[in-house]
Amino acid sequence: MAITTAQSPFRIDPLSGLRIDLQAQALVKINAVLAVVFLLVGGAAGLLVALTRWPAVHLLPADMFYMALTVHGIVALMVWIIFFEIAVIYFVSTALLSCRIATPGWAWTQVWLMVIGAAMTFVAILQGNSSVMMTSYPPLEAAPHFYLGLILFAVGALIGCFVFWGTLVIAKEEKTYEGSLPLIVYGAMVAVCIAVFTIASGAIILIPTFLWSVGLIKSIDPMMYRVIWWAFGHSSQQINVVTHISIWYCIAGLIFGAKPMSEKVSRTAFLLYILFLQFGSVHHLLSDPGLSSVWKVFNTSYMMYMAVLASLIHGLTVPGSIEVAQRRNGYNNGLFEWLRKAPWGNPVFSGMFLSLVGFGFVGGITGVVMSVEQVNMIIHNTIYVPAHFHGTVAGGTTLAFMALTYFLIPVLFQREVIMPGLAKWQPWLFGIGINVFAIVVMGAGTLGVPRRHYDITFAGQALAHEWPGLIYMMMTVGEIGAVLAVVGGALFCYIVVGSILWGKKVPADAKCIVAPPADAGGHKEIGAGGFEAPGTFILAMVLFVTLVLYYFVNFKYLATLWTLA
Amino acid sequence: MSNEPIEQQTVLQRILDDINLIMCLCLVVPTVFYTLWGVMEVATIPLGK
Ligand code: HEM
Ligand SMILES: [Cu+2]
What we know:
The complex is a heterodimer of chains A (565) and B (49).
Chain A: E1 2-3, E2 10-12, E3 19-21, H1 22-53, H2 62-94, H3 104-126, H4 144-173, H5 183-213, H6 222-256, H7 263-276, H8 293-328, H9 337-340, H10 347-370, H11 373-379, H12 384-411, H13 420-446, H14 469-502, H15 534-561
Antiparallel strand pairs in A: 1-2, 2-3
Helix pairs in contact in A: 1-2, 1-3, 1-14, 2-3, 2-4, 2-5, 3-4, 4-5, 5-6, 5-7, 6-8, 6-10, 6-12, 7-8, 8-10, 8-15, 10-12, 10-13, 10-15, 12-13, 12-14, 13-14
Chain B: H1 11-17, H2 19-43
Bound molecules: protoporphyrin IX containing FE and copper (II) ion (CU).
């Protein structure tokens, strides 16, 4: 089906109707495959960590535990996620804009730099003297190639951002689209802006730290490191948020023919992210001495709420647009028929919707509440923190990426997904597992169980500590959830690799799988009580009330801890 | 950017469509309020004697 032009060959994909640049296709594929391979590595390390924190199992010895934790943090959070994000930005900027990719040679340089960088850091960790965890706070010192690998990886990612930007410029010059950028590409553009800030911050702090590790700089100030490192560490999470929100919009369009309820409102919400999202970096420093409360409170309690507002807008408009589309398509009865009759067995949809709900209720609510300076004191450095961010980055971002992958396999790899019966359950397994882990372990964290801790009982030490039985039970149930998530994650990797290697080829005359726009000739009178999307409105209210209650519960708990009640 | 005459677009729409402006805002705003302010906070901690 390839139509070869003088400049660059394209093909028209029968399943999606997209006009796909073959060079871009190869680049998206390689980045996505590398991502999945690293997810497998990161997940395996996660399993080892989880089995060690499961009190009755306590698998690894202490040094191996911290090594596995370092591998897990770096490989899962940075390598898997960023490779996949590069795949996403290349995909949306070329396929959704019908455009060729800018400077493919540089894009291949991106691939190589990121592979070499990731491998270098990975080897450094396995050599055993770089178990500094992903934050690598000085005075903890890793081997020089640990930092060098991260720097190369980041340079590669930066090149990927430039390739994306160049593609936007080409698309505009060659007029491959009309009017404003489509919303999904717009979201990717916002993610790339944040990525440039993130990588610049990473460079500012990691280059001196590398020089310190080879002895060229005498010392790195730990406070200064923390402030600048978190401009990198936190902002990189914002790239994830923006990317997975764009994927939500994308999947809502693909499956339901949903259109954003208001393009302008959604875009303005993205602008709020640009202006306010990075302020959240301070939430990692709320318990740090030496930094003023003025700075902390200005950043987290005032500015950051503007970004939270933006998240609420996206959280409302994505399911809202699905509801409107479903109602137009005839599922207009009652409040929730549109949701009940959604294709829950399609992993593209179930993965996306579980990501949305998990990100909102588990990752989102806890993130907002723990960003309050006072409440932060309850949970700082407890296992509550990893519980929170598995709600965002695993239950939210990773699950959304998995969902999109089920679309990319037939469209880009031109293979049918193998084992469709199991693929149907995969997002549920991963989603339920990770949320059980997050919610239960969150309870343990609220009661004081520390994060990044090999043995909370300090067995055999002078300061041995006995915890109440409830704690051991929570850690056990939580880690059972973690194991379930690993099973879901491994199943995902198997399905992806298997589909690519031995999945049936999609025939050239396959039927289009993308839903037509939902408003064409569908039901006109939809909704109830003057609302187009009353079900979504109720869901949003439930989220809001949960947030307020949870906020209150935490302040109440803080008051009892300080016996002020 | 759409083909309609500039004056028909609202200011907000023009800001939203200007991707280079968006990139600049994204780099400048957090650099000032988070990074520079934060670094000043650390730099002005008095040295212990
Ligand atoms: C596959 C299922 C997963 C399991 C079973 C799992 C389990 C765990 C556990 C038990 C910890 C240690 C908490 C502590 O002791 O402080 C942890 C930490 C962490 N996880 Fe996961 N996780 C999973 C998926 C992910 C994913 C998909 C990501 C990122 C995209 C991720 C990112 C992290 C990070 C950044 C840390 C913190 C490491 C550190 O403190 O340095 N995890 N995970
Ligand atoms: Cu953060």
